[in-house]
Records
---
Amino acid sequence: MIHYSRRRLLKQGAALAGVAAIGSPAIVQAQSDKIRIGHLTPLTGFLGALGAYAQLGIRMSAEEINAAGGVMGRPLDIQSEDSVNPATAATKAQRMLDQDGVAVLMGEINSASALTIMQVADRNKRLFMQIGARSDALRGKNCNRYTFHVDIPSTVMVNAVGKALVRDNMMKDKKFYTLTADYIFGHDLARAAKAFFDGNGGKLIGDELVATDVTDFSPYLLKIRQSRPDIVCSNLAGNQVTNLIKQYAEFGLPYPIVGFNLNTADAWAAGDGNLSGTWPTVWYHTSDVPASKIFVANFIKKYGKPPENHAWIEYVSLKMMAQAMNETKSTDTDKLIAYFEKQTEFDILKARKGYFRAWDHQLMQEAYPFTVKPKGKAKDPWDTLELGAAIPAPNESLESIALTKEQNPCSM
Amino acid sequence: MQFGFLLEQVVNGLVLGGYYLLIALGLSLIFSVGGIVNLAHGAFYALGAYVSVELTRYFGFGPAIVLSPVAVALLGILFERFILRRFYMSDPILSLLVTFGLALVAEQAIRMIWGAAPLSASIPPTFRGSIILGDFLFSRYRLLILAVVAAVLLGVWLLLHKTSFGRVVRAGIQRPDMVASLGIRLEPYMTVIVMLGVGMAALGGAFFAPISIVQPAMGAEIITVAFVVVVIGGLGSFWGVVIAALLVGVVRGITIHFAPAAGEASIYVLMFLVLMVRPRGLLGERIEKFE
């Protein structure tokens, strides 16, 4: 055996671990007749599982659009990469605009990465359709003219679940204990939750910040039990939600659990009989809207499993973008912005059409609270959730669940 | 009351530490005997989880938890014979590179076989819920893990300290040259050590699958904590790793009690402090070949 220093060995180990975080750039081919779309979404880390669905959704959308003749007769070319982290996301977005010749930027799930890409879009005066990140701040104090937001923001999710809780007598004078994801999205969600509790007579008796890479929740569960709340509430994100749900069921704490954010992939990964309570969603594959059913059937045929909400949202987002380019006969940023700002209505596979609100660029659309199907009622491992009625109700304006001008400090 | 809460966190931290131990002990053994930092150790942990979820579908939880580590340990034979064995005598950077590469390949392979979406897994109904002893709350399932870890630990200790196999291994850690000059080849012993190490990692993965998310990158996440435990405990020391694992669990629990947001950072601060005071780790021995 040769002699070497342990210290050197450890240093080299650490350096290698660092290399993993940087990731590798994609190989780019230049083809001028294609319309290139720059797509960034997390494929690794605590939101990676959702990003994988996002990629499937946008790919399927592009294939359908191209099979139908493309956009202005030109095929769409989706250049999709792992956004990794906020700093890398911004670097990649800039490179896509400068070197890869993309017409527009799309994607994201992570609110922190979405924020840095928004800044790139603003600096370069180029369009960014921010699809899957939900922090209020993105369409609030950080909003800019070049970014449009598709997914429902934190406040809408809080309202969707909060209203269901009020209806079920689980709000007034109840003691809430919340766990919050420790990054921009979680903080935002916690703020919206607190505002809802304050406005509806709920009492917040504890709120703990949880790092995004936490896998073991047992110390938090002990703290929850020590403060004996009436209801436990999750403001977590991605893998955190699945881990919490599994371990909450493991410890079997007696307090009902609800949450203000959940993606269906997180729920599917939670395991049989572990999930309970009321949660929000933007879309679910059991929706009985005919167009949605066709999309679900095609998706299952293609990928062998039902689409998750991030697959749906990427699918409809690219369709909206293609429609905008076709109608304006252009990929010009200003023309596209003007088209969206006209509050053009889009078919988003829901009962009601959606449109981007002109003053904050947020897509107005229905949202749903859901509960968990009782044991034995699910037809397959994906059919685990019972969708509640869409909010707002059919006779109310879509804007009635969105942030009002007073609540939202966005100015462009 | 405050003291009681704290004590509950300490006890819970010890339980969690026992689980870290399953992964860290194998990493430490492979490092001590072969001089190889096995960055692919997390991959075996992930494989253990995936294989157990797959087997649970056919055979149920009990058989899966036994078969999955065995299957992964058999894979460990191939890993040692065809990959690690080439690097015992070479520059350690090479073995670092090859195990790191292997970790990436394994993660992508898992993505290709099982998909990027996490798998669903649950605790068997018998072990659901918790037991309340006095003022303390224990998860039944974690008590089961604790019992298994204790049994595995005892087995490994007996193997290393009460058998001729263990004597050769321990001698191999300290004086590989002397072992060789006595006419004993260390390679077959390494095969067993690697089998044992990756088998324990797989057992950890199989046990944690029902209570944490089963996703392709799970291996990369656990390897960091395992590394921290090994560094704190010190090389070549069985009890060093045991104490370090428990310490990491307890420090994390206490930190979360007082400052939840700092929970994950606390274990790195602990490592920093230990390395400042004792660069060799808590019970690390002076190993000639590492000096």
---
Amino acid sequence: MPDTLLYAIEVSLNGLMAGIMYALVALGFVLIFKASGIFNYAQGVLALFAALTLVGLQQGQIPFAHVINASFGTDLHHFGWTLPAVVAIALTAVVMVGLAWAIERIVLQHLVNQAPIILFMATIGLAYFLEGLGDVMWGADIKKLDVGLPQGINETIDAVTFNAFGYGFFIDNLDIIAAFVAGVLVLALTLFSQYTKYGRALRAVADDHQAALSVGISLRFIWVLVWSIAGFVALVAGIMWGSKSGVQFSLSLIALKALPVLMLGGFTSIPGAIVGGLIIGMGEKLFEFFAGPLIGGATENWFAYVLALLFLVFRPQGLFGEKIIERV
Amino acid sequence: MKKTFTLLAAAAIAASAGFATPAAADLVVPNLSYRTGPFAAGGIPYADGFMDYFTLLNERDGGIGGEKVQVPECETAYNTEKGVECYEATKGQGALVYNPLSTGITYQLIPKVAADGITLYTPGYGRTSAANGKVFEWVFNYPANYWDGASVAVKHLLDQNGGSLEGKKIALLYHNSAYGKEPIRTLQELSKKHGFTLAELPIDSPGQEQKSQWLQVRRDKPDYVLFWGWGVMNSVAIQEAANIRFPMENFIGIWWSGSENDVTPAGEGANGYKSLAMHGTGMDYPVYADLKKYVIDAGKAAGAGDQVGSVLYSRGMYAAMVIAEAIRKAQEIHGTAAVNAKQVRDGFEQLEITEARMVELGLPNFGQPFAASCADHGGPGAAMIQQWDAAAKKWNLITGFIAPDDEVLNPLVAEDSAAFAKENTITERCN
């Protein structure tokens, strides 16, 4: 097999893996948009906040230590214990549920029936608030996130492809785990959405707030539920991206990688987020591989959006989005 | 009610300005810092070191020459537009010198400081050819700049290869911005001189996803990778290098890619990674005893006090020290403690920092001695190589100061600054 073809296959596989990482972030956007019509600008910051909280809890860091020390002249930093990763993840999930409840109580319940743009702006404010809160709670230094996920080249794939083609493919173990986790998440969310009472209630709210209210569905509960699930998805995304780059404030920018995925996959489809992620991931990596050297490289950030826009020309609602027909 | 609201709004606007107005007689050195946003992890320790050093001077010595130093801080978030806004908002307070810690902001401020008559000090960053004082009257970038860094890295590799890089492949992985592109021209010239092949691999900011670039490194198998990154790009690159098992001792970052923040997330994988260093780091300097006594323990630290001794804290402190020395020199030249911006520029231009002076300042062997002049605003440009020991979690200096290749750099500086002079109709000075 020609070297270029081998390299292109390796690049494609890595693109698919990268796409799944993007899709993990996009899933959170889809969940909230589907249930409430809100484009949650704060989804990237939710991932950051979840990852910061996870590391803080795991390492026994005292929240707001800087503020406490500055106010009372103390020198507190850590409780002196560390938590197993599973316990820390569970506690962080509880924190994210608490955060969802607080968001509903403090922000969303006052904005029922407001125009979508108002809700969108509220999430912008929420994003900045959470970023600041995360900073004050846990500090702005870069933290190593270690929940036991393996990283580095997968030896089996390397050996098998080397024996078959004379060139060992690089696939990161972390990406393989991310793909598995994303698959489980999508399956669980789809089953929840289609086959559970609350899943059906969530879809009803998504279709029509007022109609859902009229049949006794609690809008407030559904919003807490969906923000909790989105918070959990953000935690998963935060773990994957935080393991890759350390937990730092640029983690919130992963949302930028999710936008073309949403444009392509549609804002209301969970499978769409995954398929969109795969197309964007593979498309941007292949374009960089073939066209990058000719036009100076660093094409991935903008090419993802070009690809999404091209799809929009033919399917404005995205690949899996709902086609909106309004009669006039 | 309306009046109360108006008063509250006015108070909020005043508070949001983010800095206090200094007393008229104080020496004002605005700190254009970034404590928020994606680059905060680098901006915070630098800003803390910068602020703490001036606090030390105020608390221990009563300021500089008896004049207290005010350091109004303005948040740029490493955003060029915000940086320019900060400059415009603070320059009227009697600002003497700016150190924006951003090459992008620096490029925007170069024409502004020339028009306003305020010094721009960009140690180790900014526009490299500003080292030519004949053209850049108001800009200083000693003790070293990016082109020096590129040359020092190549000289280190020459040392490692018996003086020849003939036939070697070197990849430059860089932040796709004005900052990251700075060393390209120099490395191209050095590749011609030393016979190595140069591959240029840009990474878009912020750089969380670099798989394409590292797959290319894996395919092309360069002998060495040089790296111009900042922020999250650094830690991701080091992790990716470890993932593809690139030999870390052959991976060398510029001094902005060589802090504890950059290597910690990769854990053991970062062991052996090298970076340039234009100053020493760690707590083994007498100045830290004073900092502890007068600033940290006194509860006057700019931050939480947990960054003291880190690479970027040391760099911020070093920048403040040089500025303080330039102000001191200006006071000496002009015979007044309350120097103005123009006089401070003179201080920068006639500044000489000897090793004896560094010892007096509590920083023996911390930085290279240098003497500026009308023509030379760039200093000697030497840098050391440091290597990360993951087990001990510390940087070890593995070389002394290595001088750059001025034979290659000087013509480049002259060419670039001449082009700037032509574009901006600047007549060369110092003749």
